[in-house]
Structures are given as C-alpha cells and as structure tokens.
Amino acid sequence: MIDIGFGPQVCGELTGGAAREWLVPDGRGGYAMGTVSGLRTRRYHGLLVVAGETPASRRVGLASLDASVLLPSGAQVRLGTHEWSSGDVDPRGYELLEHFALVDGLPRWRWRIGDVVVERELAMLPGRPCVAVVHRLLSGPPVRLELAAVCTWRDAHGERRADGPAPRMEPVDGGAVIEGAFRLAGPDWTPEGQWWLGVHHREEAARGLTCEEDLWYAGRFAGRLERPGDTVSVLAWADQLDRQPPPATEVVATARRRNRRMVAAARPADAVEATLTLAADAFVVRTHQAPVDVVAGYPWFGAWSRDTMISYEGLFLCTNRATEGRELLRSYAATLSEGMLANTADTGRVEYNTVDGTLWLLHAVARHVAVTGDTDLADELLPALRGVVDAHLAGTRYGIAVDPADGLLTQGGTPGTALTWMDARVYGVPVTPRTGKPVEVNALWVNGLAGLAELTELAGQDAGELRRLHERARTAFRERFPAPTGWLHDVVDGPAPTYPLGGAPHHDDDLLRPNQLLAWSLPYAPLEPDEATLRRVAAGLLTPLGLRSLSPDSPGFTGRHRGGPAERDGGYHQGTVWPWLLGPYVDACRRSKVSVDEVFVAIEAHLTEYGLGSVSETADGLPPHGATGCPFQAWSVAELLRCRRTR
C-alpha cells in the first residue's frame, strides 16, 4: 500500500492535522474515526460509533480516550486535544505529536516528551462493534499513563447536553457499562462522572450545523509503563456486553492480519490498487438486516441502492469478492416492486424513488455474469429483470414509462420529485428535477436492454423482443440527444418553459453536464465516442479530482460547495466536482483512443490529503478544488479502482 504518514510539520500544526481524517470500520456499519491531530472536528467522530438496525442509525459511544503521562519528575503531560466553545484549544497534545501513520490501514500515533516516546495503536474487532486502543512505551524511563474515558450515547447526527440526564454508569469488573449500551474495560479503573461543557466541532460549524455538545467524563484507567515495549490498553464494545473480547493487542494483530489478507486476495497490481482495495473493504458490511450490504459513505450515509449498484463492479468484482457480490445482487433484486428497485434510505424507510437505480441493477448483474461467468445467477434473476422491462413498458411510479412514440424512457411529472442521481432539494424543492428524458437514464436503458438480451440468450431463451426494444431505443437516442452545441442534451422532451403563444411544445436542455458520459462509456452504450466531443466535455468539466456537475459558463454554476445546508444542497449538482465520474470519463476516452495517462495523478495524491487512504464524495468546482462531503465515499473509491484495474 502507499505510504501514508506525517511528521511534526503536519502533526504539530492544528489546521493541517485536523483536516486529515482516518477511518477504521467494524464491518457492520460502525466505525472509529478522527483526525491526525486527535482533535474531534465533527459530531460524528469517536472511537466507538455503533451501527443500529441499519448502518445509518449510528450512535456515538466512546468519544475519546485522552492520555496523560506522569513523568518521574512528577510533571503531568496531557496528550489529548480538544477545542471549546470559547475558541480555546486545551489541552494541546498535538504539539507533542511527532509522527502519525496508517499501517495496514490502522492509525498509529507517536508522541515525544523529551526522551519519553509513547505510541498509540487503534483497531476494531472485525465483525463486532469493539475498539481496542493500545499504548506502548517506545523509549525513556518508567512513566505512569492515565487514560480519561470521555463518553456520550446519542444519535450520530445530533448532540447531547448537560441540561439533560447524565449517562447512567454501572460498575463492572475492570470498568463500567455506560447507558446499558456499551462497556469500557481496562486497568485500574477510577470512576469520575463529570460533564465537560462546550466541546466545539469546527467542521459542523463550517457546515452551518449545531457545532457544540457536552461530553461525559466517565472515569479513567491507569497503568505503569516500566520499560520499552510495555503496554497499557483499553477495550470498548457494544452488544453482548458480557462477552469479553480478546485482549486489545490481539484485536490489533487480528485486524492487521485481516487487512493484509483482504488486500492480498485482490491481487492488486500496485500500491495504489492495494490502498484502494482496503478502502473499498470499508464499505462492504454485514448488518442486522442483510448478509451483505454497502455503506455509501462515512461518516453520515447508510445504504443507498443507486450508490451500491454504481459501486458494485469496483467494490466486488475488482477485489475478488464475487461470492459476496452474488448474495448482494440476490438480496437487492428481491426488493423489486412494480419494476423498481428499493432505494434503502437513511431514514430507515424503504422507498421506491429513483429512475436510475433499477437500471444500474441491470448493469451490475450483466457485469457480474460477464466477469464471473455465473450463468446460474443470471438464470435465477432473469424473470425479475424481465419484469423490470415489462413494468417500464407499462408505466410505473412517478410517471416513469417508456414513451411509445420513440421507445425512450421518460420520468417525472410528479411535483417535488428528483429521481435521478442529481436529487438534491432545498426546502423540499428539487434543484435539478430533470423531468423528461435524461441522457444517462436513457443510456442506461439502452445498455440494460442489450445486457438483458444477452443474459436471455445465455439462458437459451428467445431475446427477439428485447433486441427489438433495444434497437428502437438506440436509434431514437442517436436521433434525439446530439445537440447543436457539439455535445449531448442533458434532458430532452422536458416540460416547456413559459413561451409566447405558438412557442415550442417541449424543452431540450443543452447545459453542459457530465451525465452524457454514460452514452459513450457503458458496455452497450448507444453512441460511439467522438474525440472532439470528449475534448469539449473535458474542457468544461474535467478537474484534477473528477468532473464538475455543471460547466462554469452555465447559468446557476456554483463554484464552492460550502456554507449551510441550503447553500450546500443548492450547489451539490450545480458545479460541484464528483470523483466517481472519472470512471465513465476514462471509459469513454479509452473507447475513443484518447489518452488518460495523466488523469489519475491528482486523484492518487488525494489519497493522502483528506480521508486518508480513500476518496472524497465531492470537491469544489473552482480551484484549488478543496474536498467536501463525506471524506470516505463508496462510489468514488469503486470507480477509481475499477477504471485503474481495467486499463
């Protein structure tokens, strides 16, 4: 894997250290997450964040474990870092942090106090909400180490205040149980029970959200580090509180071995692929409701079917996890209703509210069979997939239907809906409703019909009708989507703007957006890519970290994905950069023999800049294209891994 490590120039400077985040998942949708400096900058940061019935229903438990070193001189040195509502940063342990590194995907800190060097390692027990934190003396005289357990128990999207009831603490052997929900265990436990008031989260402040909370100082652990190599460790876990985990040092070793095995099994071609393989693993989870699922992004997303299907090839087929992928496709296909795939939402409700998620399922199944030769799965899913086509021909929810006039897929007509991946709303109003016939939806429709026809023929069945539907849709696509601008319309046959009497009966949207890339990039794309067109698209949309969602010279372009929720949602698809779109762009370029040798340089460097070892959800549309959104995003990682592996 690539070397991800920082010395005192980054570690000891709070702005840089606090802007780089690490993630250790537990395989169930929970995680430990924080920053290089140790400062909690988000409400979502914590050492034990536990998934509920769904990955999105997470709760923060152990917020931090603050170390203090008692030197032989009697001086006490605090290694933690907190920011307060007053603006003060106290303690300032980051100033003593001489090195941080990710080693096999696990974070490792090293503090120096003169000749005393203390190291911390952290891991989660794979498949269980359990974190192990190990402190080790690397050099220096004997010291005493105290570890303050700072806790809460709340929804990860919220805060908890001291004006409410204090967390319940029950003493147990070696520690305490907090709120009956999670357990702390370690040496020489001393309960305290005290509120720490006004903890500040700078990233939440930047996002225009509530940025302060109160935390509960539950108590402290302590131990002696007599000689180099000695350790003092703490465990924290939820679920099955009476089931003691293995020793903390064993948890770290187990997690490290597992990560190495996962990477080796994928047979990566280089260090970048190895890093992306481990990044991909973070999103593949087993939950209370599903044997295999995909978390769309950390720290705030749960499972979303569109994200899962777009990510499928990169997360599963490019990492040699086809067996798990097979189970995922079967379980997702089982949710089909009226020809639509359930969009498993973070609200916990099952909703059917995408026009493209189902079409991405058709693509994912076709790619699975093409790569693995798993015709048994094709045979099993074929009736359900053919039902998708039948339902779209007949018409299904939200006015989604095949237009009998041309065989293309139309959607919308229901006020307040945004059914494509550009689905942001501000105060309930879609920013980009894209009602009509969106270009990528119809590229996926053409692609899905051809892929399904091939699966049908592999099963020894007649695909004549599917071939006819495909040819009709492909012909109509080629006639309708090319625009006079030299690229493709983003939507055709949309609702007419207000025209004078005798105006046009419909509207074709020719704003330069990246959705058209799917018309050239998919396996059964309706168009052959044209180098001149791709260069026009690249000139307006391509950035070092991905493609803009709207060209800068278009009305409504927003160059900064910043501010409060309304500002961020308003700009989400109005110029914000999306790294996942590099996948379709690279595929289209390769098909037209346009070189992409230099496309990956910046995005690979990005692996050490924001979400360490991973790829962000979004970035600003204007230079310097600062990363925004989730630091760890499934489809961003999956598409980069896929298009690198298939070059």
TrEMBL record:
GO terms for biological process: glycogen catabolic process. Residues 279-642 form the Glycogen debranching enzyme C-terminal domain. Residues 20-226 form the Glycogen debranching enzyme bacterial and archaeal type N-terminal domain. One of its GO terms (molecular function) is 4-alpha-glucanotransferase activity. It holds the Pfam family GDE_N. InterPro entries: 6-hairpin_glycosidase_sf, 6hp_glycosidase-like_sf, AGL/Gdb1, GDE_C, Glycogen_debranch_N. PANTHER family: GLYCOGEN DEBRANCHING ENZYME. This is Putative glycogen debranching enzyme. It comes from Micromonospora sagamiensis.
